[in-house]
Amino acid sequence: MTEAADDLVLVINSGSSSIKYQLLDPESGAVTASGMVDRIGEHNAGIEHQADGATTERRSAVADHTAGLRLIFDMFAETGHDLAAAGVRAVGHRVVHGGEVFYQPTLIDDEVVAAITELSSLAPLHNPANVAGIESARELLPDVPQVAVFDTAFFHGLPDAAKTYAIDAKVAAAHGIRKYGFHGTSHEYVSGQVAEFLSRDPADLNQIVFHLGNGASASAIRGGHPTDTTMGLTPLEGLVMGTRSGDIDPGIIAHLVRSAHLDIDQVDQLLNRDSGLKGLSGVNDFRELQGLIENGDAAAKLAYDVYIHRLRRYLGAYLIDLGGVDAITFTAGVGENSPQVRADALAELSRFGIEVDPAANTAKSRTARRISPPDAEVAVLVVPTNEELAIARAAHRVAETV
């Protein structure tokens, strides 16, 4: 039976070979249904759909993103939530790169789609997939407002000194080269949740947020506005990640081209997909990495040490950038679920007012919580991120103006 869903928003995160989705209430955050279509373009593609406490799985060929979205719509109808008839208020799309053009949630039309497509040179692995999801959703829900929410938007106003690379200024201007930052939707949402948790005005808080998943980034936030972030022109810069190298000497690229005779696509593959924890240890799943360490694997231990070293390096940099910090927050898959990472990242920093309470740190919880001693100068927090809710709220706000 189809329910009235006038205030629900469908959130779509369209990747190169997958579509993640949620149908949720932007006010309460209650999720009606969610799921993912994976392996798009392969014969063994399929969907995992969760609704009303039940999970439905189906495997079949999914030719493209339009077929993937049709499969999602079919699954909604099959489980009693027919999207075409439910009166969904808006569709919110995660778009990775907005360049200099987009820094607010934006109502999608043909010109916006063309502009996002043009920005694909800055995010060749992401923006084309985002566009594919947008075009498919517009075809299937032509009368519903579609809204793009950009991963780079929160960092659009970075200070000039933080966003500018020290290369020829004319070259940078001609090719849109600056630090854009990513995971912005998460950093904005989590930093707002921190202020609520501490019952503080965001304008009075200095924060450092670590978004640690397979992709990882950190941000320094003063008074609700970011002053720096680790990711740059692309999501490759910064912290060590699951498969991405993070910071390296740029001369390594020229060295690989000259000495290893790699072409630019091979270098791109190496740094984005075959580096990071995977490149050092052979695995990019943090649980597997920790299992290897427990079994005495030296390569896995080195990978972990490099990962922590990079976290601490940026922590120190951002402490100086902010001139002191009121809250340090961990979020995303690793940040929320690895007490060891949190403890090691902040070890031996009591002279800076930074301490972790071992019992609070290891306590199981899925809610926002403080893991520093109550009397510690700096609040150390774990705050679950919810990018889908943030996108839904942004999309709903824009749809209300249509």
Explain what this protein looks like in three dimensions:
The protein is an alpha/beta fold and 402 residues long. It contains 16 helices and 14 strands. It has helices spanning 65-78, 83-86, 110-118, 127-140, 160-163, 169-174, 184-197, 251-259, 264-273, 276-281, 286-294, 298-322, 332-337, 339-345, 358-362, 387-399, and strands spanning 9-14, 19-24, 31-38, 46-51, 54-59, 90-95, 106-107, 146-150, 206-212, 216-222, 225-229, 327-331, 369-370, 379-382. The chain has an 8-stranded mixed sheet, sandwiched between helices. A hairpin with a 3-residue loop joins strand 9 and strand 10. Helix 1 crosses helix 4 (127-140) and helix 11 crosses helix 12 (298-322). The model has no long low-confidence stretch (mean pLDDT 94).
Please render the helix and strand layout as text.
Blueprint: E1 9-14, E2 19-24, E3 31-38, E4 46-51, E5 54-59, H1 65-78, H2 83-86, E6 90-95, E7 106-107, H3 110-118, H4 127-140, E8 146-150, H5 160-163, H6 169-174, H7 184-197, E9 206-212, E10 216-222, E11 225-229, H8 251-259, H9 264-273, H10 276-281, H11 286-294, H12 298-322, E12 327-331, H13 332-337, H14 339-345, H15 358-362, E13 369-370, E14 379-382, H16 387-399
Parallel strand pairs: 1-6, 6-8, 9-12, 12-14
Antiparallel strand pairs: 1-2, 2-3, 3-4, 4-5, 7-8, 9-10, 10-11, 13-14
Helix pairs in contact: 1-4, 11-12
